[in-house]
């Protein structure tokens, strides 16, 4: 089968004929989203945190078709793949938070993923039967679930600032708007800011040059700030825009450092937390929102042969929404 293989940090993926996977549950890949995480792996940003053995087929946002009947699924059925497999017995796994399991294995990181014609899935418990366009649905497997987790507990009483306009941010925005939350979006990419406006953002603010977020949005305060970037620029002073008992949620992984005067935290009762992926239940819930028409994914389709073009387009900010890779 054709696969895009990651062999070396800093290199493009190699398009190769490799052996089809055997054993376990085999899916014929219908669509796989390209995530910023894939770029972080390829460029070596995560080499100290996540050990990736090479050669490896990346791709952790997968919709596939079941090849052979399983206990609960029939051949030909379409499924969305929850990508993290935990040990099943630690306190995080028992709470369904497999992403925090010390022994977690992620499809497309620790085992071969979806940038290929077929993928092997170790357990059917992580498969959600779906109906609809695989290309539109694939981004829910990571961007969607993360977006859902990132806006939990936020209600129509709250005023929210979203930092960033990538695929996760645009989904988070839509979930908040479906609850009637007032949302301001700040970003640098004009095409994506326009898309945010189109998707219902109450206000979009463009930031350019060396201006900082707090200097551009002076005079407003928010109950929640959700940073879908996580760079030094976005973390620099945005926390000053939080209201009393406000919360900063950091989702993006651009490696910035957060420096906060402790008195700001204490006097305003501010909370700071990180958001990593979500639970299998979150995936079920975000798919439900999609089926109900409350959210939609924005996708740009690429053939597997063109995956390196998709990677370059994503790295250079030319993608609005998600690049989704489809096998030939
Ligand atoms: Zn990802
Ligand atoms: Zn565990």
Topology:
Layout: E1 2-6, E2 14-17, E3 25-34, H1 36-43, E4 56-57, E5 62-66, E6 78-81, E7 84-85, H2 91-94, E8 105-106, E9 118-121, E10 127-129, H3 134-137, H4 143-150, E11 159-163, H5 167-178, E12 182-187, H6 190-198, E13 203-206, H7 213-216, E14 222-227, H8 232-235, E15 242-250, H9 262-268, E16 271-274, H10 280-291, E17 299-303, H11 307-315, E18 322-326
Parallel strand pairs: 11-12, 11-14, 12-13, 14-15, 15-16, 17-18
Antiparallel strand pairs: 1-2, 1-4, 3-5, 3-9, 3-18, 5-6, 6-10, 7-8
Helix pairs in contact: 4-5, 4-10
Bound molecules: zinc ion (ZN) (2 copies).
* CATH first level of the largest domain: Alpha Beta
Structural class, by secondary structure, is: alpha/beta
Number of helices: 11
* Percent of residues in β-strands: 25-35%
CATH superfamily of the largest domain, by name, is Medium-chain alcohol dehydrogenases, catalytic domain
The H-and-E topology, N to C, reads as EEEHEEEEHEEEHHEHEHEHEHEHEHEHE
As for the CATH topology of the largest domain, it is Quinone Oxidoreductase, Chain A, domain 1
The CATH architecture term of the largest domain is Alpha-Beta Complex
- Which hetero compounds are present in the coordinates? zinc ion
Mean pLDDT value:
96
Computed CA radius of gyration, to the nearest angstrom:
20 Å
Question: Can you give the helix content as a percent range?
Answer: 10-25%
The span between the termini is 10 Å
Regions with pLDDT < 50 over 5+ consecutive residues? none
Shape: globular
Tally the structural domains.
Answer: 2
Q: Specify the biggest β-sheet.
A: 7 strands, mixed
Q: How many DSSP E strands? A: 18
